[in-house]
Design goal:
seven-stranded parallel β-sheet, about 325 residues, alpha/beta, two-stranded antiparallel ribbon, TIM Barrel
Length: about 325
C-alpha cells in the first residue's frame, strides 16, 4: 500500500478505512466479523483507521481497542469529539442530541477515547463538527493543549467552512480536514480544496462511495433497516435513487472499459484529485475492503478524469445529502450537495 502525507508530518496509507458502519448508522455486524475485517486491513496495508466517540456511541472505539491489541504500532488511529450524547440506554444516531465543542468536552472525550482504544496517544483527533456556541479558537486551542500534553499527535477538523478552517489553523496547525467528497458530492472543490492546499492541510473525504450508492451496493429496491441512517436521507429516498441510477450505470460502463469495478473507479477518481487527499471508504466485509484497496493501483489520465466528471454533473444529482434534522451539522450556509 502506498502512503500519503497529511499536513506537515502525518504519513498514512493512501487509502484509509472508515470504521463507523461496523457499529453505527448502517446496522452494524457481529464483532468477530468486524475484527476479522480490521485484521485484514492491517495485513494489506490499509492502516489509517477512522472512528469517533459517537459511533455506537462508544462501541466503535471499543471494537478498535479489542481488534488492535498487539497491532497498535502498525496503525494510525483517527477519532473525533464534538457531539452531546444522550445518557439513556440505547444505541445509534438518536443519541446524538446536539453539539459540544467546548474545551472541557475535548479533554473529557480524549481521555475516554484513549481508554476505549487501549492506547496512550491518539494519532489524529478531530473536532467532529463546529459548535456554533463555541468559538473554533477555543475548541482547537484545547486540542492543541492535548498535543502539548502528549495525548494527541495531530489535530483535525470536520465539515468546516473556509472561515472556520482559517481561524482553526491560526490557533493550532491543522493536519487534516475531513468532509464528504465523492462524484456526487463535490461542494468542496470551489473553495475548500484550494484553501487546504494554500494552508498545507491534508484532505480526508468521507463517504467517497456515496454511502454505497456509487458502488452499486444499494439501489431503489433496497429496504433499509430501522437502524440504518440512510433511510432518512433525501438521496436515499426511492424517487431520488431512481433518478440517480443513470449515474451508477455510467460508472459501470466506464469502469468496464478500464477492467475495474464501479467502486474502484469512484475511488480512483477521488485519489486522482490530489496527492494530499486520503479517502476513507467504509466497509464491513473483507472482500469489499480488498476491492477498495486495489483502487490505489488504478491510474486515471487527465482525459479519464474529465470524461468521468462530464458524465456525472454534480448539478444534476437529485436530493440533498442531509435532511432537515441534520443540516445544523453542515458547514455554514450549505443546504445541498
Amino acid at each position: 500500500m502506498r502512503t500519503r502525507r497529511l499536513g506537515q508530518g502525518l504519513e498514512v496509507s493512501a487509502l484509509g478505512l472508515g470504521c463507523m458502519g461496523m457499529s453505527h448508522a448502517y446496522g452494524g455486524q457481529e464483532e468477530v466479523k468486524s475484527i476479522a475485517t480490521l485484521h485484514r486491513a492491517v495485513e494489506i496495508g490499509v492502516t489509517f483507521l477512522d472512528t469517533a466517540e459517537v459511533y455506537g456511541p462508544y462501541a466503535n472505539e471499543i471494537l478498535l481497542g479489542k481488534a488492535l491489541k498487539g497491532l497498535r504500532n502498525k496503525v494510525t488511529i483517527a477519532t473525533k469529539f464534538g457531539f452531546k450524547i444522550a445518557p439513556e440506554a440505547g444505541d445509534g444516531v438518536s443519541r446524538m442530541i446536539g453539539l459540544d465543542g467546548s474545551p472541557a468536552n475535548a479533554k473529557r472525550v480524549a481521555e475516554a477515547s484513549l481508554k476505549r482504544l487501549g492506547t496512550d496517544v491518539i494519532d489524529l483527533f478531530y473536532l467532529h463538527r463546529p459548535d456554533p456556541q463555541v468559538p473554533v479558537e477555543e475548541s482547537v486551542g484545547a486540542m492543541g493543549d492535548l498535543v502539548r500534553e502528549g495525548k494527541v499527535r495531530f489535530v483535525g477538523v470536520s465539515e468546516f467552512d473556509a472561515d472556520q478552517l482559517r481561524r482553526a489553523h491560526r490557533e493550532h496547525p491543522i493536519a487534516a480536514l475531513q468532509s464528504e467528497y465523492s462524484l456526487w458530492t463535490r461542494g468542496v472543490e470551489a473553495e475548500i480544496l484550494p484553501l487546504t492546499r494554500e494552508l498545507g492541510i491534508g484532505f480526508v473525504p468521507f463517504s467517497p462511495l456515496g454511502r454505497g450508492f456509487l458502488a452499486g451496493a444499494v439501489d431503489a429496491s433496497t429496504e433499509f433497516g430501522a437502524d440504518d441512517f440512510r433511510r432518512g436521507l433525501p438521496r436515499f429516498q426511492k424517487e431520488a435513487m431512481v433518478a440517480n441510477a443513470r449515474f451508477v450505470a455510467t460508472l459501470d460502463r466506464i469502469a468496464a472499459a478500464h477492467g475495474i469495478t464501479k467502486a474502484q473507479l469512484a475511488l480512483a477518481w477521488v485519489l486522482a484529485k490530489g496527492d494530499d487527499i486520503v479517502p476513507i471508504p467504509g466497509t464491513r466485509k473483507i472482500e469489499r475492503l480488498e476491492e477498495n484497496a486495489r483502487a490505489v493501483e488504478v491510474t486515471l489520465s487527465a482525459a479519464d478524469v474529465a470524461e468521468i466528471e462530464a458524465a456525472i454533473p454534480p448539478e444534476e444529482i437529485t436530493g440533498a445529502r442531509y435532511g432537515a434534522s441534520t443540516t445544523a451539522y453542515l458547514p455554514q450556509g450549505e443546504k445541498k450537495a
